[in-house]
Each structure stands twice: as structure tokens, then as C-alpha cells.
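Re: the request from the purification team.
They wanted to know what the chain is likely to look like in 3D before they choose a buffer screen. I agreed to run a prediction and write the result into the notebook, where they can find it.
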Amino acid sequence: MKPLQENPGTHNRFVALKMCLAVVEQGRSLSQVLPEGLAQFSDRRERAFVQNLVLGTLRWQGRLQAVAAQLLTKPLKEKDQDVLQLILLGLMQLMYTDIAQHAAVSETVNVSARLKKPWAKGLINAVLRGFMRDAEALCAQVDLKPAQKYAHPQWFYKAVHKAYPNHWSYLLEANNQLAPLTLRNNARQQTREQLLAQLQHAGHNAQAHPLCPNGLVLEQSTDITLLPTYDQGGFSVQDAAAQQAAELLQPQPNERILDACAAPGGKTAHLLEQANNQLILLALEKDPARMERLQENLTRLQLNAQTLVGDAAQPQAWWDGQPFDKILLDAPCSATGIIRRHPDIKIHRSPEDIEQLVQLQQQILQALWPTLRQGGWMLYATCSVLPQENSAQMQHFLTTHPDAEALPIEGDWGWADTPVGRQIFPGQAGMDGFYYCLLRKRAPE
């Protein structure tokens, strides 16, 4: 319950602080923390304000920490992570918002009373006012190191610099931009033009996406459940890069298709919509909770698929022995292509995670390949920008599987210089960072 005497601005910042701590200190996912924290606000503007504070503080965490380190006479102790995050929250307001500086400082300092650490008030005030006095010089010093300037972990900066020596700064900068809200029209129910007209009539400006036959981009984010035709299954939220999956796999009526690692079901639904709901489609998902969400989406969209909780790396536990015509493997990955939507990935991901994911991807590829019929297609997809998970993974697979060949991917999107498959950088045509490689199983020689 919000204390009656407390300024709403102070309370909002305290809630934002608690969410940042849940991510940074407790290691929780922002996609879990954000809905829980925002649920206590009934006012739309308050929700938007708090969300921006949280996203901004997490997105710029690395740069904010580097600035704070210059202003602190000595590093704070681990048990004082709450004080550090409150300092970063204050710096974020001063550096990345148009909030009046005096309000940003005073309201942030007021939050310190909730921490039960009387000494913190003076420290936070001194740090924030110290930044205001010398902001330009402090930022210039921090920005001498690219990883700090672009607020990414050092290991990730080094990885993308090595992989894309001519594009790394574009990629890191794109990761810090706000991602658009992109919808996929359900072509079984209406045309894209009809949905655009309905959105316009309801006061929502949107544009057709040039690279997706059923994609459209809203000018402003909004509660999608309030948009026209949502309850009737008229559209789904899906980034334009993710919409390329069904376009590449070209599902045909009565084909037997496996969607491995299927939740939350965006690509599952798109495949079904493309074939007018006439596929023999098995949607496989390891996590029972995520499978529930997938089934809810299919129900809303009035689509039919066989859903099964199972491990894609263990087909002996669920496969009936009938080969699939096509397989979509949206592989578990680092998600480094969607950092702009999930800035906590910068905080949670480590080099050790990448090594483990590469091994898991290899296991799943190895396990699923025998379930594909001769002449069948497998589309390997990730939302990563790291070559280890993408082109290098596919080169390894092609080398170790003589019956596999990579088919050319035609399209006015992605990076054509990818050794095999097609890599999309975040921000290209407004899309998320994605990788695709289309494989065909040929007859043994």
C-alpha cells in the first residue's frame, strides 16, 4: 500500500528500483518482473513512466555503472546493491530523459528513505549533483571504451567486433533503440488493408511492413488486447524478422510439419495460417507452462495443431516414426538479436552460456535430422547475432552431414555476406536480429 504522505513520484521510482533489483540482484527475467510490478498501477501514464525508468536503467546499466564509478570515492559493498541501483536510476533520468533535473534528483534522493540506510541519502545526493556539475567530461571519459559507451558487456563487444568488424557499432547502437510494435495480420480472417483501416478508424496509426505480406507496424505501442479484432483472432504480435520463418518454409496443405521448440506459438500459428489451417502440424515444447500459452494463442486464432510437451533433443520419447515433410527448428539461443526488447539479456548472458547453447543446438539438430524425410526441408532459426550459434553452427552441421545441403535464401533482407544462411541485424528494416538457414535432406550418394 502506498503511504498517503509519500509523493507519487517517489513511490513510482521505488517500484522501479525494486524491479531493477529483481533483475540485477535476484537474476529474474524482466519479462516476468515487469508485468508484476506494473500491475499495481491503474493509471496508464504511471505505468508508462515506471516502465521507461526500468527499461532505461537496465538498457544503459553498463554505461551508468561506469559513470557512477567515477563519482564514487570507493565501490559500494555487495549488500548495498540497492543503493547502487538507485544511483543508476537517478543517473538514467539525468542522462536519458527530459525529466527536470531538480525533480529527478530530489525524488530519487527521497526514495533512499525506503532503504533503511540513513547514510545513503547524502551519498546519492552528492553523486547525482556531482554528475550535473561535470556531465560532459564524465561521459567523454566513459565513452573512451566502446563497451561502456554502448552499454554492453565487454565479452559481447569483443564477440561482435570480431564477427562484424565493419558493422559492430551499428549493431550495438541498434540494441539500445526502442523496438517497434509489429503485428501479423491473420489472412484467414481479413486482408492486411482491412486491418489497417480498422486500426485507423480506432485511432491507431500503422504502416504496412514492406518485407512482410501480412506485417504492419504501429506508430505507438499500446495494449494490443484493446485493438480491433484481437478477441476474434484477427492478428498476432510478431516481429517482421520472425514473420520470415513461414515465408521461407512455404507450408502446403496436408504437409506433415514439426515445429520444434514451438512456444509461445507465433511461428506455429503463422505456418497454419499460410496453409489455411490444413497442416498435420506437431507443435513440440519442453516447458509445460509455455505450452499453455501456445494453446491459448491457437485457440484465440481459431487454429488447430497437435500440441505435445516434449524435448526436441529426445525424439525417441515422442516421435511416432512417420517422417516429417518439413521441420521448423527455432533453436534455443542467446537471444542476442532481441536485446532491444529484452535489455536484461545484457545482464544475464555470459560466454559460458554461449558454449552450452551451441552444444544444445548441436544435440537437437543431430536428434531431429533423422525424423525428416528425404527431400524434406528443415529451417534452422535463432534470434541471435553470434556466428557460433548461426553460420558456424550450420557450417559444422553441413560438414558432418553429407545428406544435408543449404538452399539459397532469396529476399531483400538480411546480410548477404553471411557464409551460409542469412543473418538479420537488429534494426534492419525495423526488424529484430535473426538468423535463418534452410536445409534440404538429399539422397545419399
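For the purification team: Residues 8-151 form a domain with the N-utilizing Substance Protein B Homolog; Chain A fold (CATH 1.10.940.10).
Please add any questions underneath this entry.
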